Amino acid sequence: xxxxxxxxxxxxxxxxxxxxxxxxxxxxxxxxxxxxxxxxxxxxxxxxxxxxxxxxxxxxxxxxxxxxxxxxxxxxxxxxxxxxxxxxxxxxxxxxxxxxxxxxxxxxxxxxxxxxxxxxxxxxxxxxxxxxxxxxxxxxxxxxxxxxxxxxxxxxxxxxxxxxxxxxxxxxxxxxxxxxxxxxxxxxxxxxxxxxxxxxxxxxxxxxxxxxxxxxxxxxxxxxxxxxxxxxxx
Length: 234
Description:
Helix 1 (17-29) packs across helix 4. By secondary structure, the chain is α/β, with parallel strands linked by helices. It contains 10 helices and 8 strands. Strand 2, helix 2 (48-54) and strand 3 (58-62) form a beta-alpha-beta unit. It has helices at 17-29, 48-54, 67-77, 94-105, 123-139, 151-156, 168-177, 194-198, 201-214, 226-229; strands at 4-10, 35-42, 58-62, 82-86, 90-91, 110-117, 146-150, 182-191. An 8-stranded mixed β-sheet has the order 3-2-1-4-7-6-8-5, with helices on both faces. The longest helix is centred in the middle third of the chain and has 17 residues, at 123-139.
């Protein structure tokens, strides 16, 4: 039985999924632990499932079109004691994966790590990721690109909140912090900057204002969530 389970939610990600899984394999093999990769294939109409199987992942087909539910389905299908959630457009590093596993073995129940964009992005994107990288470890702000948790802690809080269509990792982090140590690592992963490249700073500001006005209820509706659920770019 594997001790580490990598869970990758994916919807129409056949372009980027291959590099994501290759990076996970490379990092996981350096651990000296048994591991598995579970791809939760959510209603894809492209070759996402085929790419995942070709690269040795266990594929489960779901039809949620909601990231929290898709991640939870992947976790339920996994068997490892330690869970690492990786977005389908994110390239992990050996250092980040090793640090996450080391933290959990030392009693940390969950956390995340810093992220960098994978290529050129508008200035506002560079500034945003720089600010997050400086303050996220200090305040325990875990991004969705890379999130880790022990299975026991994850199941204790019942996983990601499936009433939310976004910011579900923030809610999970808050719940885990009540249980024990939650650590955002300074090690980095590299995530796609396609959303930033596809939207201007003004676009992002408008989205932020709309969500702020709507409060928590705005995150419980699929409407207006095209930034997260719209067509895949690049």
